[in-house]
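I am going through a labmate's work and have reached the protein record below. What it holds is a sequence and that sequence's fold in token form. Please read both lines and tell me whether the tokens look consistent with the sequence. Do not assume that whoever made the record got everything right. Thanks in advance; the entry in question is below.
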Amino acid sequence: MSYQFLPMPDSEGFFGEYGGQVIPPELKAVMDDIDAAYETVRQSTTFQNELNELYADYVGRPSPIFYARRLSEELGGARIFLKREDLNHTGAHKINHCLGEALLAKHMGKTKVLAETGAGQHGVALATACALVGIECEIHMGQIDIEKEHPNVTKMKILGCKLVPVTRGTRTLKDAVDSAFEAYLKDPVNFFYAIGSVVGPHPFPKMVRDFQSIVGREAREQFIAKQQKLPDIVMACVGGGSNAIGLFTAFLPDEDVQMIGVEPSGKGLNTSEHAATLTLGSKGAIHGFKCYNLQDEAGNPLPVYSIASGLDYPGVGPQHCYLKDIGRVQYVTISDKECVDAFMTLSRMEGIIPALESAHAVAHAMKIAKALPAEKTILVNLSGRGDKDADFVAAYLNL
């Protein structure tokens, strides 16, 4: 099959029929100002040089690709490689776009950066970036996630951000987004809402994708250098979808490279306790943009669940919706049990403790590797490390 990829998004922020700006008229001018400022800095050699220096000297890029030899040999079949975003400063891919957003906010003269966080990785990365550039930071986080991801909560406080507990609704990521956006609306001229994934109104899906695309560009070059070919399969977990689109973007034109996004089926697709948006969702709008989302008959977002706090979101990035519709990316699901099994297996086979979010992708790689021939290769974006999840998993398994 041949895929035609036009420049995306279009001038209105759409990826096919998804994305755009489903926002009050008074916010459109603010979002358009952000878009204009981003397009200016995107083409600024000074800005790009500053960002690239920070990626190298502050984040520690390029992150390496690691061949999971023992895991691959134990499973038999395809060889599994890991793009080690867990080795970045702050422990995940989130720092890639947080540095870009913090620098953009500073460039625009904003006085405060606000954001939501689920697992806390975006919160820690943004608090880190704001401390670096010297701008006030406020993070909204669901009370359940605060209790579950205590190590990241402590880090955010040490880094100097104001942490706002969200106690309404499900007390998780969706409600944290609502709370942070309401705070942002109090002064959108002086505040900057640093969205934590490729979601939200235009230009955020484009902007976060562009900052994250360094993952795929590095991975493509590294894989060719080491293996003298492209990977056969690339995969990543998908909640909002930032780490996945960061990896996928560089490989989109490579028709021989299969792409797989892995969603959380939680306690089962036949229950209400999952966050399998692309698998079971329907078309609608949420948080200022059009996408597939898990919603009731009236179009209201449904409560969602995942053992990985960073994946329990009822919407998904608009570019993922487009890639699903044209068949370029296959979206599958992994359950809580499969996720935890992969978390423990990778820890004990390779000495790498993955984030529960990333463990979803590892689990699917483990599932399909054994059925593939040995010459096949799978590249997994290991989007974060599991320091934040270690105590939770230990309690979950009664270790």
